[in-house]
């Protein structure tokens, strides 16, 4: 297959860049603790614009990972730069001790996205997704006066001490975090139950089932399992809350059977617990059909957690909740929470998503991309086990054998990633076994970009078969 190449840098530039890359690579491994450096030959970034990243040799890459699902509106968007500059020229930081228009204007704009539940009317601003989940944990425990919390297997809610108990992925698990219960993951592809109508996605699994399109029995079974957990493992069924990513991100873009999130969270709420919707990856239009992922589940969260795309990669995060829950925390302080530059950038993000119709683009181009990837799944022999997701939150799970679903080995995954990178495409990787390609481009990509990415990926996979 002939692949379109973006740019061929000169030999001198490549030589200079590779010497430089070696020394910076050594520095990173000796003096910085960044365990996730992705490529065998490290990628040394010079600058980025829109959906593209440029390395120090001048080579251009199509960025299909977007700073780990963060750069929603594209790299270096001029409106965001203008907003940040304008605020920087006024003042950078004052703390939460004074009234500030930038903070008020952003909170007002953000709350407009919660019109379907006007009780969600209080914003608390923090600096990262982990910190937002930590604060949500604090609020849920204070409000309910309960300690135990529930999250799903394969979930990722951050890895600060308090959220380690909510994150259930092998490498991050620690034995010393008390108070966390782990519910069975309702995964229609890998789980015990799942079939061909489960997912809210243009692409279903190839599993068969006896369900009708409007009633998913897998959902019933997984809710029963949650009920068992409440009956047997939790004192008087009382928990502070249940955390759910609307689509699991780091865990490999796992979607749940239709109806599960609504019924599971109602069960917890009926027993006095809160439903915390983790929208760190699925928020801000990334799923295409809805602005928030939980809306597609028809569920009613008590706390919504957001980060990443909220400010396109500027360190900023928030939770939105009801006033009585926010008050429950009592004394709380956060020096950088509501940083005015973050608020200015986050405000511009909301404008750009609306003005450039990025959610609509995500739905259209994302659906096209999903369908092309599903074709690849069906055409290739044992390799692609599953394609799933919505909009630009897409996962492609690689298997050695479609029957047994034995995960692709890490070396093969890395070889494909390396080959894609060589041909100008950057992808992410995730899942408990590291066997899922995470395809999460900025929301401004075109259909041509999507086609280019599928061609490059297909070529890289075929070479690995
Ligand atoms: C769903 C989800 N929640 C929370 C977090 C933690 O966010 P941060 O890395 O900003 O602390 C992440 C990060 O990947 C995430 O994907």
Automatic annotation (TrEMBL):
Domain of life: Eukaryota
Gene Ontology BP terms: glyoxylate catabolic process; L-alanine catabolic process, by transamination
SUPFAM superfamilies linked: PLP-dependent transferases (SSF53383)
EC number: 2.6.1.18, 2.6.1.40, 2.6.1.44
One MF term in the entry's GO annotations: alanine-glyoxylate transaminase activity
Record carries keyword Mitochondrion: yes
UniProt keyword annotation of Transit peptide present: yes
GO cellular component, one term: mitochondrion
Reaction(s) the record says it catalyses: N(omega),N('omega)-dimethyl-L-arginine + glyoxylate = 5-(3,3'-dimethylguanidino)-2-oxopentanoate + glycine; 2-oxohexanoate + N(omega),N(omega)-dimethyl-L-arginine = L-2-aminohexanoate + 5-(3,3-dimethylguanidino)-2-oxopentanoate; N(omega),N(omega)-dimethyl-L-arginine + oxaloacetate = 5-(3,3-dimethylguanidino)-2-oxopentanoate + L-aspartate; N(omega),N('omega)-dimethyl-L-arginine + pyruvate = 5-(3,3'-dimethylguanidino)-2-oxopentanoate + L-alanine
Principal subcellular localisation of the protein: mitochondrion
Cofactor(s) listed: pyridoxal 5'-phosphate
UniProt keyword annotations, A-Z: Aminotransferase, Mitochondrion, Pyridoxal phosphate, Transferase, Transit peptide
Class in the EC hierarchy, top level: transferase
Cellular location(s): Mitochondrion
Assembly mode: Homotetramer.
Cited function: Multifunctional aminotransferase with a broad substrate specificity. Catalyzes the conversion of glyoxylate to glycine using alanine as the amino donor. Catalyzes metabolism of not L- but the D-isomer of D-beta-aminoisobutyric acid to generate 2-methyl-3-oxopropanoate and alanine. Catalyzes the transfer of the amino group from beta-alanine to pyruvate to yield L-alanine and 3-oxopropanoate. Can metabolize NG-monomethyl-L-arginine (NMMA), asymmetric NG,NG-dimethyl-L-arginine (ADMA) and symmetric NG,N'G-dimethyl-L-arginine (SDMA).
UniProt family annotation: Belongs to the class-III pyridoxal-phosphate-dependent aminotransferase family.
Protein name (database record): Alanine--glyoxylate aminotransferase 2, mitochondrial
Protein's organism: Adineta ricciae (Rotifer)
Organism lineage: Eukaryota, Metazoa, Spiralia, Gnathifera, Rotifera
């Amino acid at each position: 297959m002939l692949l379109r190449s973006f740019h061929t840098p000169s030999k001198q530039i490549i030589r200079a860049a590779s010497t430089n890359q070696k020394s910076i690579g050594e520095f990173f491994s000796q003096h910085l603790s960044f365990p996730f450096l992705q490529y065998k030959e490290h990628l040394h970034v010079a600058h980025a614009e829109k959906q593209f990243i440029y390395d120090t040799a001048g080579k251009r890459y199509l960025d299909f990972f977007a700073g780990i699902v963060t750069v929603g509106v594209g790299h270096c968007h001029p409106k965001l730069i203008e907003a940040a500059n304008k605020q920087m020229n006024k003042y950078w930081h004052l703390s939460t001790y004074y009234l500030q228009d930038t903070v008020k204007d952003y909170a007002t704009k953000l709350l407009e996205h919660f019109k379907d539940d006007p009780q969600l009317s209080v914003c608390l601003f923090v600096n990262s997704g982990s910190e937002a989940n930590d604060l949500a944990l604090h609020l849920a425990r204070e409000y309910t006066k309960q300690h135990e919390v529930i999250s799903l297997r394969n979930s990722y809610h951050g890895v600060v001490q308090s959220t380690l108990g909510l994150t259930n992925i092998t490498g991050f698990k620690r034995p010393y975090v008390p108070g966390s219960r782990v519910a069975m993951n309702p995964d229609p592809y890998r789980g015990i139950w799942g079939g061909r109508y489960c997912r809210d996605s243009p692409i279903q699994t190839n599993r068969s089932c006896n369900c009708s399109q409007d009633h998913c029995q897998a959902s019933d079974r997984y809710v029963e399992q949650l009920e068992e957990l409440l009956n047997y493992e939790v004192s008087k069924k009382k928990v502070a809350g249940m955390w759910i990513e609307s689509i699991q991100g780091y865990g490999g873009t796992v979607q749940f059977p239709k109806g599960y999130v609504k019924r599971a969270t109602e069960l917890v709420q009926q027993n006095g617990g809160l439903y915390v919707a983790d929208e760190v990856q699925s928020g801000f239009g990334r799923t295409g059909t809805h602005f928030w992922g939980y809306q597609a589940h028809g569920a009613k969260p008590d706390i919504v957690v957001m980060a990443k795309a909220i400010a396109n990669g500027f360190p900023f995060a928030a939770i939105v909740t009801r006033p009585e829950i926010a008050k429950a925390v009592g004394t709380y302080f956060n020096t950088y929470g509501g940083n005015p530059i973050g608020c200015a950038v986050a405000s511009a993000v909301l404008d750009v998503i609306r003005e450039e119709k990025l959610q609509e683009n995500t739905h259209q181009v994302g659906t096209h991309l999903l369908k092309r990837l599903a074709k690849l799944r069906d055409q290739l022999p044992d390799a692609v086990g599953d394609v799933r997701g919505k909009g630009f939150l897409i996962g492609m799970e690689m298997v050695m054998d479609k029957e047994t679903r034995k995960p692709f080995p890490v070396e093969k995954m890395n070889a494909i990633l390396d080959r894609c990178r060589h041909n100008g495409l950057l992808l992410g990787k995730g899942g408990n076994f590291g066997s899922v390609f995470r395809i999460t481009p900025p929301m401004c990509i075109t259909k041509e970009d999507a086609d280019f990415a599928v061609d490059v990926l297909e070529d890289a996979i075929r070479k690995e078969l």
